[in-house]
User: Which sequence fits this backbone?
């Protein structure tokens, strides 16, 4: 009998990737959690044979019934969704609360054998207390909660997924055109860190690779349990190399230029303030 793998955020980037990776695996039966089973995205999953169940992460009782009978659960939360309206610190609280709701529901699921929690490294500990990355810390709070529940921790894998290649599709990360002296269009990417020495851990195509890592986690519990960390990393590249690669693919001339944190915050008000807050402890 196929094991039920329940996927939170099944219509999103990470959850959608997990669904695609497991869809044709006869040993697994996929259950997708969604707030609206009548949405086009949910209907598309149902047409592929995925069991679609309605639940609201903000309402723990709905999660208990949605998780019932699950062999494994993939859980992910979104920090950036409420960022613009809620702000940096309130968004942290919102994400942490959702992650704790998911963990509590998972802990109450008797059938559960494997809980894959999408988290990130502890920036505060790793930097010796110098740096706190908001969307890392909001997930780390959930990590600590999971670790306070021994029977859930024994079933948990902490999955750390690296920087998405797809992030380059967002205007913030794309080089901007300027007029050059020779009349040829030139593109510039402004960054608040050293282009040559600041390395980015890259996930590659997140739409495919997240799911492949999760499948490997589920297929090899002897390596990924209890309470172990699996880092989803395909390669490392400096910011400058990343921009150069983008330029090569799109056949443009592009340069990466470092500016001060203060200037960066002026040019990109929301994201600049967010980036500056990372250094605050």
Assistant:
């Amino acid at each position: 009998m196929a094991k039920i793998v329940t996927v939170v955020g099944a219509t999103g980037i990470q959850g959608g990737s997990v669904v695609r990776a497991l869809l044709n695996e006869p040993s697994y039966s996929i259950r997708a959690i969604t707030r609206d089973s009548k949405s086009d995205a949910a209907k598309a999953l149902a047409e592929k044979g995925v069991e679609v169940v309605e639940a609201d992460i903000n309402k723990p009782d709905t999660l208990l019934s949605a998780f019932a009978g699950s062999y494994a659960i993939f859980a992910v939360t979104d920090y950036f969704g409420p960022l613009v309206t809620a702000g940096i610190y309130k968004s942290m609280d919102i994400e942490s609360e959702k992650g704790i709701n998911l963990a509590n529901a998972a802990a109450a699921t008797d059938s559960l054998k494997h809980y894959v929690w999408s988290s990130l490294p502890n920036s505060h500990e790793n930097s010796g207390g110098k740096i706190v990355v908001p969307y890392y810390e909001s997930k780390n709070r959930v990590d600590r909660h999971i670790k306070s529940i021994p029977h859930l921790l024994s079933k948990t894998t902490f999955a750390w997924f690296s920087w998405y290649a797809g992030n380059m599709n967002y205007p913030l990360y794309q080089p901007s055109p300027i007029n050059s002296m020779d009349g040829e269009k030139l593109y510039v990417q402004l960054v608040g860190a050293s282009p040559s020495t600041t390395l980015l851990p890259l996930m590659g195509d997140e739409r495919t690779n997240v799911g492949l890592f999760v499948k490997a986690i589920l297929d090899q519990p002897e390596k990924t349990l209890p309470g172990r960390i699996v880092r989803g990393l395909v390669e490392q590249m400096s910011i400058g190399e990343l921009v150069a690669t983008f330029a090569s693919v799109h056949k443009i001339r592009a340069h990466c230029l470092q500016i001060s944190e203060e200037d960066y915050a002026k040019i990109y008000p929301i994201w600049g303030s967010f980036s500056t807050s990372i250094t605050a402890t």
